[in-house]
Design a protein that fits this description.
By secondary structure, the protein is mostly beta strands. It is built from four helices and 27 strands. It has a domain of 117 residues. Strand 26 and strand 27 form a beta hairpin. 6% of the residues lie in helices and 31% in strands. The N terminus is likely disordered.
């Protein structure tokens, strides 16, 4: 039987040791405003080589780590992303794969569970979706357990407790090496210790219901997004209106990662939608609505004062059609700290350009209210070279790395990482 390799390491092509850390040669070869496919960095190939077990049900269990409606969790302090996801018919591989955004090395941060130790009822009722996770004694812990004591169950103990995998959307954020997953079943992944904790251990639905019974006692729903701010030491998590009938839900919450409680029962009163762009830029949380009728509008929320400013992007417009194939959740966007701007990609709707909105300067007009939003110029920047692969289920999957001066994107699992310089 294979042994999980939590320390497994696959280096990207072209790395050299520099200053005690592998420094990539490839970033010097990235031309200005031209797509560059980084050789030897195909996520699916490198991640598959790290997996200690096989035989996971699903259409593509390794690709599902990034293709199955799940964003990687971005750690700007480590300049890395952590990939975990799957569910439905996509796959039941619950590994966490780390990608270093400087070297593009892929490592196994937390190993997946061993399907050979799934309990018999679960095996019998699982095809390409989850079955009933019940152990022979009748125990139903709602995760793959490592601490079963009943003799009927102990043959099925995993090496570590691991959650059942689902779609994750962008509903996770990292603080000091610990990723908190907010969508559906709450859980935490300690990527430094290579273990999971608090699986199902925090009831956010009950906390919301205590604030207002109209929020109902239920999990955070489809399309949840999250970010972490180290100054306030809080996670900020969107509430998705309309999901599972929770039509009262909207705005976002502040979550205290120490107490694991909603902070002061405060709800930020801003419009939110499923799988919207939600990212941090400076002292703001930015939210861009993926409303087909208004794809160039959004807001920014001051994380210190809780003041809200509404935004509209004028100049070169972006557009998209919801439910496109290959499916995109929304237009892709994130913050470029080197330029003080929001960078957006139309993906399937405009493969040959990036769009930039300089939000660090004074607005062109407006007063920041909902009725008269601040106006910022949006500029289309043509990008030459061979097009990237068509993106799948993306939201914020675009990362600026100050160490290399590159924007990095992973359009889909079966693709090299794509670098571009503005």
């Amino acid at each position: 039987m294979a042994t999980p390799r939590a320390d497994a390491y696959t280096a990207a092509a072209g790395g050299v040791i520099y200053g005690g850390r592998e420094r990539p040669q490839w970033h010097d070869a990235v031309p200005l405003r031209q797509w560059y496919s980084v050789p030897g960095t195909n996520f699916k190939t490198l991640a598959a080589a790290l997996m200690p077990y096989g035989n996971y049900p699903g259409s593509d269990p390794v690709a599902a780590l990034v293709d199955a409606f799940g964003e990687p969790c971005f750690d700007p302090n480590e300049m890395a992303v952590y990939c975990h996801g799957g569910g439905h018919t996509d796959g039941l591989n619950n590994a966490v794969v780390k990608v270093d955004l400087t070297t593009l090395a892929h490592t196994l941060a937390i190993p997946p569970c061993d399907p050979a130790k799934w309990p018999p009822i679960y095996v019998a009722t699982t095809t390409d979706r989850h079955g009933t996770l019940q152990y022979p004694s009748g125990a139903t812990p709602e995760y793959y357990s490592s601490t079963l004591t009943d003799p009927r169950d102990t043959p099925y103990n995993q090496l570590i407790d691991t959650p059942m995998v689902t779609h994750q959307y962008g509903g996770m954020a990292i603080r000091q090496g610990r990723i908190t997953y907010f969508y559906n079943q709450y859980k935490e992944a300690d990527v430094r210790a290579a273990r999971w904790s608090h699986i199902g251990g925090v009831d956010l639905g009950a906390q919301l219901n205590a604030i207002n019974p109209n929020y109902k006692n239920g999990v955070l729903g489809q399309g949840t997004m999250a970010l972490y701010d180290d100054v306030t030491d809080r996670h900020y998590v969107t509430l998705v209106p309309g999901d599972a009938g929770y039509n009262w839900r909207g705005g976002f919450i502040a979550f205290n990662p120490v107490t694991r409680q909603l902070d002061g029962n405060k709800i930020a009163n801003v419009p939110t939608r499923s799988s919207m762009n939600f990212f941090k830029g400076g002292r703001y949380a930015y939210g861009l609505m993926h409303d087909v009728a208004a794809p160039n509008k959004g807001w920014r929320f001051n994380l210190d004062t809780w003041a809200v400013e509404y935004l509209v992007f004028t100049g070169d417009p972006m557009s998209y059609v919801d439910g496109s194939v290959p499916l995109m959740e929304t237009l892709i966007a994130n913050y470029h700290s080197g330029r003080g701007s929001i960078v957006r990609w139309g993906g399937n709707f405009d493969m040959d350009a990036l769009y930039e909105v300089n939000v660090s300067g004074a607005p062109l007009g407006g007063n920041g209210s909902a009725g008269n939003p601040y106006q910022f110029a949006q500029v289309r920047i043509p990008i030459a070279g061979s097009r990237p692969a068509a993106p799948v289920t993306q939201i914020n999957r675009m990362y600026f790395n100050p160490a290399t001066g590159c924007i990095l994107m992973l359009p889909r699992a079966n693709s090299n990482w794509i670098a571009v310089k503005l």
